[in-house]
Design brief:
zinc; 4-stranded antiparallel β-sheet; cytoplasm; 14 helices; TIM Barrel; Amidohydro-rel; 374 residues; 8-stranded parallel β-sheet; single chain
């Protein structure tokens, strides 16, 4: 079984790959000759997962914070400072090794494209180093100097640093800029200043928004034409209308919602309103220390009200749209002629098993650009 770009389930199908791209899709009986063949033996073939929101460049441990949260303490963004301190003191070699190990873990579960952010350095030198490591280790790198205002620094002074020397330092290594527009992090005005400077520098825009309560993040993202706004746990009718009228993708982060015991993002409501939805892991040490996209897909089905097909689409094509990589030659997130041959073979006859058998190791093989990596 194969799920193709037109959202069809094709049975007894074949996919032909040439030069790292998909060259042909159709009935197996009519497949053209190929140099090598892989018999899927009735297993389901999906696009590789597109994880459009992660924070992989970090060191340190925050299990004590997790235990406190499980005991009833509410989540606050201040734990970011704990990771910042550990990350700043880690060697560049160690950080590169940690990122590589996390990427391998994600690949082993079918993820073929990964975005990751800076944001655990929070000074010019540390953010530049994180950006270099991210650019070398993943597929899309995002500047998140506006993750938290370090203690003892005037917020407006820090915003000027983010928009000036810090942005200049990371610019050669990143494609995107992000901001945590949230109480306890950055105000609407500060967030707009950061994103406006990033756009002027030629970066695409992303927003962390509406995670901890109703706020300005969603509407700011739509106003500035951000590619995505991520978290979206608290969505007002006005937010929903803005998203439905614009092109900004609403990225939901199910594993984070469970870890923070937050209200689950209203993915069902967003989809029903016609909003493009992506699912991502938000892999980070404080609120979602997992890169398992199958876990996120299963959670979206079992607890967010999505169908299996909707969840798989959000975790593949939805992520590609959120990263602006869903069109043209070499597009990702779909099985379509001309797209990258990023493929995920399940050890199951259908994608339904991802939710039907949650937590089970169902990845049989993974290809990136036609080369087998798992």
């Amino acid at each position: 079984m194969t799920v193709d770009d037109e959202e069809r389930v094709l049975r007894d199908a074949a996919v032909v790959v040439d030069g790292g791209r998909i060259a042909w899709i159709g009935a197996a009986a009519g497949a053209p000759a190929a140099d090598d063949r892989v018999d899927a033996d009735g297993r389901a073939l999906l696009p590789g997962w597109v994880d459009s929101h992660t924070h992989l460049v970090f060191d340190g441990d925050r299990t004590a914070e997790f235990e406190a949260r499980m005991a009833g303490q509410s989540y606050a963004a201040g734990g970011i400072a704990v990771t910042r301190d550990a990350t700043r003191t880690a060697s560049e070699e160690r950080l590169r090794g940690l990122v590589a190990a996390r990427v391998r873990e994600a690949r082993a579960q079918g993820t073929t494209w990964i975005e990751t952010k800076t944001g655990y350095g929070l000074d010019v030198a540390s953010e530049e180093r994180s950006a270099r490591i991210a650019a070398a280790g993943v597929d899309d790198a995002t500047f998140l100097g506006a993750h938290l205002v370090p203690a003892g620094i005037d917020p407006d002074d820090y915003v000027r640093e983010v928009c000036g020397p810090m942005l200049d330092a990371v610019r050669p290594f990143v494609t995107w800029a992000d901001v945590f527009c949230e109480r306890g992090a950055f105000t609407l005005e500060q967030s707009r200043e950061v994103l406006t400077a990033a756009a002027a520098a030629g970066l695409g825009l992303r927003v962390h928004g509406n995670q901890l309560g109703h706020g300005d993040g969603i509407r700011l993202a739509v106003e500035l034409g951000a590619a995505s706004v991520d978290h979206c746990n608290f969505v007002s009718d006005a937010d929903l209308d803005a998203l439905a009228a614009g092109d900004t993708v609403a990225t939901v982060l199910p594993a984070c919602d469970l870890s923070t015991r937050a209200p689950l993002a209203p993915a069902r409501r967003l989809l029903d309103a016609g909003v493009e939805v992506a699912i991502a892991s938000n892999c980070n040490p404080g609120t979602s220390y997992t890169s398992s996209m199958p876990f996120c897909v299963a959670t979206a089905v079992l607890q967010m009200g999505l169908t299996v097909h909707e969840a798989v689409r959000a975790a593949t094509r939805g992520g590609a749209v959120a990263l602006g990589r869903d069109r043209g030659a070499g597009a990702i997130g779909s099985i379509a002629v001309g797209h990258r041959a990023d493929l995920h073979l399940l050890d199951a006859p259908s994608a339904t098993h991802l939710a039907y058998r949650p937590g089970m190791p169902l990845t049989a093989a993974v290809w990136r650009e036609g080369s087998r990596v798992v």
